[in-house]
Amino acid sequence: MSNSIYASNPYHEEERRHTISVIVDNEPGVLARVIGLFSGRGYNIESLTVAETRHRQGLSRITIVTSGTAMIIEQIKAQLNRLVPVHSVSDLTIEGPSVERELALVKVDGVGEPRVESLRIADIFRARVVDATNESFVFEIVGDTGKLDAFIELMKPLGLVDISRTGVVAISRGPEGMSGQE
Fold first, then answer.
1. What does DSSP assign to residue 5?
2. Which residues contact 121 (CB under 8 A, 6 or more apart)?
3. pLDDT digits (tens, 9 = 90+) for 63-111
4. For the chain, what is the domain count?
5. Residue 139's domain is classified under what CATH number?
6. Measured between alpha carbons, how far is 20 from 28 in angstroms, rounded to an integer?
7. Would you tell me the crossing angle of helices 145-159 and 113-124 to the nearest 10 degrees?
């Protein structure tokens, strides 16, 4: 039974995860304005990455992973498009095929059998050992978010100590670049 005092909405739309790519001017304060748009309206950001993409043109790509109904995602895209330093907004989730990757550094503590098992699992997931001591490893793993989540879950019982993740980076497939602005 629902705890809400309101009747359930039979038209309730399910929230979906979306990856949005935003091309902006590479100048101070732009990221703060984009983030302010999300926080000011109560939208959550699940992942955020930003880096310069076209040095000579002074452009950066902000990749944002967020969740919402189709209506909320459309509102987010419309509001992003209204910001002055924004050149283009692409919803990579619905605009066609794209590639998403994330990198994580995963520190695992262990000796004996757990140590051997962590190396076996790392091999299966194609994670690289980037640091090793007699009592621990730091693994580097690259892949989609689901792959990283699965690897981390398997490392928990083996002595997971710490995790550092980059956030999602994404790009559309095919010959066109930056939303067709080649």
1. S
2. 127, 151, 154, 155, 158
3. 999 999 999 999 999 999 998 889 999 999 999 899 999 999 999 998 8
4. 2
5. 3.30.70.1150
6. 21
7. 170
Asked whether residue 178 is domain-assigned, the answer is no
Residues 111 and 49 in one domain: no
Residue 87 lies in a domain: yes
pTM of the model: 0.80
CATH number, domain of 25, equals 3.30.70.260
Task: Determine phi and psi for 145, rounding to 5 degrees.
Answer: -60, -40
Taking only the tens place, the pLDDT of each residue in 4-29 is 455 455 566 788 999 999 999 999 99
Query: Where among 51, 70, 91 does a domain terminate?
Result: 91
* Enclosing domain of residue 79: 16-91
**Tokens 């050149």 found at:** 87
List, in order, residues 6 or more apart from 141 with CB less than 8 Å away. Answer: 103, 104, 106, 122, 125, 126, 127, 128, 147, 148, 151
